[in-house]
Amino acid sequence: MDIKWDKILVTGDPLILASQIAIVLTMIGIVVGLTYFKKWGYLWREWLTSVDHKRIGIMYMIMGVLMFFRGGVDGLMMKAQTAVPENTFLDAQHYNEVFTTHGVIMILFMAMPMLIGIMNIVVPLQIGARDVAFPQMNLLSFWLTFAGALLFNISFVVGGSPDAGWTSYFPLAGKEFTPGIGNNYYMVAIQIAGFGTLMTGINFIVTILKLRAPGMTLMKMPMFTWTTLITSLIIVIAFPIFTIALLLGALDRIYGAHFFTVSAGGLDMLWANLFWLWAHPEVYIVILPAFGIYSEIVATFTKKRLYGYTSMVLAIVIISVLSMLVWVHHFYTMGVGPAVNSVFSITTAAIAIPTGVKIFNWLFTMRKGRIEFTQPMMWTLAFIPTFTIGGVTGVMLGMAATDFQYHNTLFLVGHFHYALIPGVVYAVFAAIYYWWPKVFGFKLSERIGKWHFWLFNIGFNLTFFPFYLLGLMGAARRMYTYSAESGFFPLYFISAVGAFIMAAGFVAFAYNIYWSTRYAKRTTANDPWGNTRTLEWATATPVPHYNFAVIPEVRDVDAYWDMKKNGDKYLTLEPKDIKPIHLPNNSGQPFYMGMMAFLAGLFLVFELKVLFYIFAALFFAGMIYRSFDYDEGYYVPVEEIIEKERTWRDDSKWKAN
Amino acid sequence: MESKLVKYPVPTEYQSEQGKLNILGFWIFIAAEIALFATLFAVYGVLHPRTANGPSGAEIFVIKDVVIQTLLLLTSSFTAGLVIHQMRQGSVKGLVTWFVITLLLGGGFLFMEIREFIHYVEVGAALQVSAFTSSLLTTLGTHGAHVTLGLIWGICLIIQMLQRGITPKTASKVHIWGIYWHFLDVVWIFIFTFIYVGGLI
Q1: The pLDDT of residue A207
Q2: Do A205 and B28 touch (CB under 8 A)?
């Protein structure tokens, strides 16, 4: 062990010093604010211990937005560094750390929490359930994800960040070549968050299979629910592979094992295989729910049923199967030979077929529809062409023979940003605009939203289209600087300008939330968009904690649309139909387990093994406590339900007295 | 939401809605566990010839001890089946008796495995020696850690059975524990076949 304890806080860099000060000030501000306004009890009772899927979803979203900010600042720092040749804003080591944390945070701590947050808020409502199958485990999932994110994020001020790329390839990421503790953070923090994600996967599979409202057969499920189900299946199959890869990596680094080392028989390519066996399906874990979000929005704002429902379902199932069969295309150049490369070229190209089917289905849904250009719809419309560019360049990269030209250039970086930003970030924005009024009872401003939309879109294309051209000119990825003679300067500069325009878009988004929270018109209408189709809109706004006064019955894919058109006993409910509703109680156990996981992880990162064992044992003590917990939950009284239902059921039967 | 205890036709563990959800959820967890152990076996399959300067499997395996371990664990799986049988009969006494026997057999297995690990370290096959020893000890260790967890879990369930008797809630817990225990047995059969027998051929 060669940890220098006197150098535990990263020092010597003015940027990091400034953020250390900012972190301390922010923390003092939060503590003082909570104490001054006497909000500790509220925070603990209503949020940190809440097993309500909507509250958990909102906590995931807050975390995702914060992580988007953090990852975005990383991105801006990289763009600032490469804006001009031979720049000295960041040194090579700092640049390595920044692109590593940018990648990990954007995929694992931004995209995943955002999408899981949306799933949490929407899926139980869409299928007409009271909550997920395992509400308390749901909260545990959140706290483990949070603990992992917290651990990963403190790395840059305490001990140093991982610096071997988000792929963390061995032997570079091993102790031999990266002796500092930075890469321990990678192995440990992602592991903790991964356990949370695995539990989320199990939770949603059971929820969707078992808790659907009567009448909702599998082929009558809303598309977002379908994509959540398939995503959860991929999570359950793919995440354990990464669990093992991270375990082996941690054993190599912290316990001196020889899985991926150069000496003693270790095999560095084993890491690459295990990593991509998880990481390629991971790409589909984040993209499939986004496809589901777009499907819901396209149908709502063209006032038409989603075109080709069955082919949509088939497409996501086929994508999920193929997602497991393409991992080698990430390292064609590493010498597996033409035969193997050919097989993986074919499977990779095959994914374009179901994806193309989906693109055409969205277009056909819009054909002859009455398109409303609301914010959610605008993001959806922007997604289709930009994502197609990302997809087509992906097929170019997937051809093994040509990949030798593109490999490890900025062309690749351009491709996956064109796939992931329209594919995930646009979808998250669309979803936030779309479901915001349902959750909070007011719409986000369309006017500020347009600023957000145009700044972000123009900025995005300006930032990442030059990457394709730079890549074709031979610019390698992950290079912290370049010479003036290379001729890369103009494109790099345009890209940097684009990045700051995109950042301005994010500021507009943040301002939109602030402005709308203060000034937007409040509504209690259950269907604020007026043309919604699925069950989540068939209850009060904001959604009551019990979700539905009685569980509705479903006859159609567009269950709520069908109710509105053909009438339904759920809509003409009377106060006498209401019965007490059983709900689970809040619990502090998940918070406790998350904090123990964080501390155990922190000590493992610093290779303080005895303390690690103690806190790991305290973590398991939380599980034993849970085993003896026979809390039976509580009943929501009828009066409370009636009070809430009055806000949206304007029928005379519901008038007070 | 626990329904009343009826003897037939629905087994007690399936009588509550939450119990049914828990059992399905656990089966899906077992699917994740299969992926987890499959990855470990794949790693072992790739790394086991890479012994570097360390010993190979044939040089360090003590087949007599492995056979004893196997017999202990397989028998415990049989007695775990008897636990469920007693539960279906409604006998708390029989259930707890067989549960204790199962955990003792599991404890015996764990004792033998710890001895085995000490033996490996003594003959120069510690985790840090080669890719082969790393993957061998990690695969065995992951299984052993699962058995340890199963033992602690089992003790918790025995206490709850004595406190509360056979209810839909406790019954679904014991049933889930049973799935877990049988699964560990299945994993061990693969370990026995591919690691020990395969290593000795």
Answers
A1: 97
A2: yes
